[in-house]
Design brief:
Blueprint (H helix, E strand, L loop, with lengths): L14 E4 L3 H10 L7 E4 L38 H7 L3 H7 L6 H14 L3 E2 L2 E9 L4 E9 L5 E9 L1 E4 L3 E3 L6 H5 L5 E3 L7 H6 L3 E4 L3 H12 L8 E4 L20 H9 L2 H10 L1 H4 L4 H13 L9 E4 L2 E9 L3 E8 L4 E7 L1 E4 L3 E3 L38 E4 L4 H4 L9 H13 L26 H4 L11
Parallel strand pairs: 1-2, 1-7, 2-3, 7-18, 9-16, 10-11, 10-16, 11-12
Antiparallel strand pairs: 4-5, 5-6, 8-17, 13-14, 14-15
Helix pairs in contact: 1-13, 7-11
C-alpha cells in the first residue's frame, strides 16, 4: 500500500476518491490547496486516459476552455488550463489562435499535465470494495495494486471518513450487436475504440456507422474525408428522428447551470425521469459546426456531377444482426416512422451508441444494506451529491456523474465539474473554501413558494416568477 510520508497506515483519510477521470481530477485539484484535508485518489488504469479512441484530429470538446477542471470555482488555481498553457510556453499561440473551444486532444493533454503533477493520485490501484465499519465509524476501502501489465501485484486497504465515486461511464453496446462485437475477426467496434481500428475501417469496402449523436457524426466525417470521391461506400443510421443539432443557444445553455441543477433536484421522481428523456437534444445532439462540415464535405463531392455514395438515414434502429459467411455483416433494420423493415449488408460497423454509468454494485455491495433507493431502485442522491444512507452511517459517499436521475442533464457536463467539486468540498469541510454564486442563470425555472422576502410592491401579484432555490 502506498501512503503519504506523514500518514499512518491505519489512520483514516478524510476522503478517498475512486476513479480518476476529469471529475475526480477536478475534485483532487481543488482539494490540493486545502492543507487540512487528507485526500487520496485511486485509479486502476496506469495513467490518465480520456476517451483515447475518439481523439480524432480536429475534434473539439463541446464546452469553452473556461470549463476546465478548476476555473469556474477558482480562477486563480495553479491547475487551470491557462496555467497549463503558460507552463508549456503556449499562451501567446493560444491567444492568437482565438479558440474558445479547444481540441479534445489538447484537453486530454491538459488533464494529463494535471495528473502528472498533482500529489495524492495513485494509478494502477483497483478498488475492489467499500464497506462501513460501524465499530470504528469509518469506511474501509479494499484495493489491489496492479503491475505494469495490469495484473494483481499486492492487496491493500485504507480507511476513510468519506468516499467520492467518480468511476465514469462505459461504452454501451445494444444487445442485438453484442454477439458481433464479441466475435473474433469481425470489424464491429464501439466508437470508443475507433482510432485503434481506424486503418481497418478506412480499408474496408462498405462501412456503417450506427448512432446519430456527436461521436457518430465525428466518425462519419472522418471516414468521409478519407475515402475516394464517388466510392465512399458509407452508411450512417441512428434512432433519433433527425441528425439534429445540439441545443446551443445562450438561454438553452442555462440548463447547464447550478440554478437549473437545483431546480431539477427539487422536482418529483416521475417528472425528472420524463425530463431526462425529453431533453436529449441538450446533450445528445450534434455540434452545429460538425453538421456543417459534413454537409460541406458531401457538397464538395458533387462539384463534378453525381452524388457521393453515402446514405444518411435517421429514425432507424437495428433489430438484429448477424454474419454472412466470414467477411460480411447483415443488419436487420426497422424504420420507426415508416413501420418498415429492411436488411443492410456491410463490411464493417462502428457503434457510436453512447455510454452508460459504469456498474459499481460489486464495489458498493458492502454498503447495500445502508443505501436508500427511489421508486425505480436507483440510489437516492441529495442536493450536495451525497448518497442517501442510513442515519447510522456517519460518513458520506459523494458521487460524480452518477446522478443524472436526480440532478439532470448537467451531471455528465464538463462545464459543471468545478462547481460540483467545490460544492462537495464545501460540504465535506463544513466551511466555504470556495464561495459559490447564489445565482447563475437569467432564466427562472420555477415559481417560488415562499415570497416573504419579495418587496411589498411585488407581493400584490398573485404569482411572482422567482427561481425555486429550496
Amino acid at each position: 500500500m502506498i501512503n503519504s510520508p506523514h500518514h499512518e497506515p491505519e489512520a483514516p483519510r478524510d476522503l478517498v476518491g475512486i476513479g480518476i477521470g476529469p471529475f475526480n481530477l477536478s475534485l483532487a485539484a481543488l482539494a490540493h490547496p486545502l492543507a487540512e484535508l487528507d485526500a487520496v485518489f485511486y485509479e486502476q488504469r496506469p495513467g490518465f486516459d480520456w476517451h483515447p479512441g475518439l481523439l480524432i484530429a480536429g475534434a473539439t470538446i463541446q464546452v469553452p476552455f473556461l470549463a476546465d477542471l478548476v476555473t469556474l470555482a477558482d480562477p486563480v488555481s495553479r491547475w487551470s488550463f491557462l496555467n497549463y498553457l503558460r507552463a508549456r510556453d503556449r499562451l501567446f499561440p493560444f491567444y492568437f489562435a482565438e479558440r474558445f473551444h479547444i481540441q479534445r486532444a489538447e484537453y486530454d493533454s491538459y488533464c494529463r499535465w494535471v495528473s502528472e503533477n498533482l500529489p495524492g493520485l495513485h494509478f494502477s490501484h483497483q478498488v475492489d470494495s467499500v464497506s462501513w465499519n460501524p465499530g470504528r465509524g469509518v469506511f474501509e476501502v479494499g484495493f489491489t495494486r496492479l503491475d505494469a501489465d495490469g495484473k494483481a501485484e499486492a492487496l491493500g486497504h485504507t480507511y476513510a471518513r468519506n468516499i467520492v465515486l467518480g468511476v465514469g461511464t462505459a461504452p454501451h453496446v445494444p444487445d442485438p450487436l453484442k454477439p458481433l462485437v464479441e466475435a473474433p475477426g469481425v470489424p464491429v467496434v464501439h466508437a470508443a475504440d475507433y482510432l485503434d481500428h481506424r486503418e481497418t475501417f478506412l480499408a474496408a469496402g462498405h462501412v456503417t456507422v450506427v448512432g446519430s449523436g456527436q461521436s457518430g457524426a465525428e466518425v462519419f466525417l472522418d471516414l468521409l474525408r478519407h475515402r475516394p470521391v464517388g466510392r465512399e461506400q458509407l452508411h450512417w443510421i441512428g434512432r433519433s428522428e433527425a441528425f439534429a443539432p445540439m441545443e446551443y443557444s445562450k438561454l438553452g445553455l442555462e440548463h447547464f447551470t447550478p440554478d437549473y441543477t437545483r431546480y431539477f433536484h427539487s422536482l418529483t421522481e416521475g417528472v425528472r425521469d420524463g425530463l431526462v428523456a425529453a431533453q436529449w437534444q441538450l446533450h445528445k445532439g450534434i455540434d452545429a459546426d460538425t453538421i456543417a462540415a459534413i454537409h460541406d464535405e458531401l457538397y464538395r463531392r458533387t462539384l463534378h456531377g453525381g452524388w457521393p455514395d453515402a446514405v444518411l438515414t435517421p429514425g432507424v434502429r437495428v433489430r438484429t444482426a448477424g454474419r454472412i459467411a466470414t467477411t460480411k455483416i447483415e443488419l436487420h433494420l426497422e424504420h420507426v416512422q415508416q413501420d418498415s423493415r429492411s436488411r443492410l449488408t456491410t463490411d464493417a460497423v462502428v457503434l457510436a451508441t453512447g455510454y452508460r454509468e459504469r456498474p459499481v454494485g460489486h464495489i458498493l455491495a458492502g454498503l447495500d444494506p445502508y443505501l436508500r433507493r427511489d421508486g425505480s431502485g436507483r440510489p437516492r442522491v441529495d442536493e450536495r451529491f451525497r448518497l442517501v444512507l442510513d442515519p447510522s452511517v456517519t460518513g458520506s459517499v459523494y458521487v460524480q456523474n452518477a446522478e443524472l436521475h436526480t440532478h439532470g442533464v448537467g451531471a455528465p457536463d464538463l462545464g459543471l465539474a468545478a462547481w460540483r467539486s467545490a460544492t462537495i468540498l464545501n460540504s465535506l469541510t463544513g466551511k466555504e473554501p470556495y464561495p459559490l454564486p447564489a445565482r447563475t442563470a437569467f432564466t427562472t425555472f420555477g415559481l417560488e413558494r415562499d415570497v416573504t422576502h419579495i418587496p411589498q410592491a411585488r407581493q400584490t401579484k398573485v404569482i411572482t416568477p422567482l427561481l425555486d432555490r429550496r
